[in-house]
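Appendix B. Raw example, untouched.
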Amino acid sequence: MSDREAFRPRDHRPPGTLVDTIRFRLRALVDFQVATVLKDVERYLSGRTGTIADIGAGAGPYRHLFKSAGVEYLGLDTNAADVFGYQTSDVLHFDGTRLPLADSSVDGLICTEVLEHVADPDVLVQEMHRVLRRGGTGLVTIPWSARNHYIPWDYRRLTPTSLELLFGAFASVDVQPRGTDVTVIASKVIVVCSRAILRQRHMLSRIAWSMCCSPILGVAVIIGQASLRADLGSRDDPLGYSVFLAK
């Protein structure tokens, strides 16, 4: 099945070098999934204190935000994270079931765009509840409108109702949509154009396709960003959902 994934997601790495910083900012401009997750992570971290775990950290794309917020970062990922193209050394690795943390040992947690790749999300959610101290908070994001990706390790899309049930053990569960159907349409246009360009093997062909697609890409970015800022469209068919939790 993995051979059918013609447009696998690009690595999402934190800003560091000048090149990485430019890539990160450019992606936040044109990739609305990333833009909305970034916004919610920034909002979640505002005013937080203590140790916050990043569960399913990957390459730690939002790690720099923890430093800016003045909180202690603790990255965790599975032993099999390399199937997603990540081989980060400075994170705690685990077997995908029990988190290597003591009960009530963290003040907060984030888990961004991970649950769709977990075969049994109930186990991971129970672990989140176990390691979070009483009164602690969390942010979990999951896509709704997203192509089948990292095949075959993409298992589900979850509605707000199913997310409320999944996190039912928490004292507070606030499910919020990210973007609207207008954002989704703009995002799909960007993906189609980008795929057409990147599929070209010869430089001249890629340049020609880039010139043809650039006006369309520009309009899609403007419309998508406008939909996020002005809340244009229906929130019943968003890019994804952010779940704000409290124990």
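End of appendix B.
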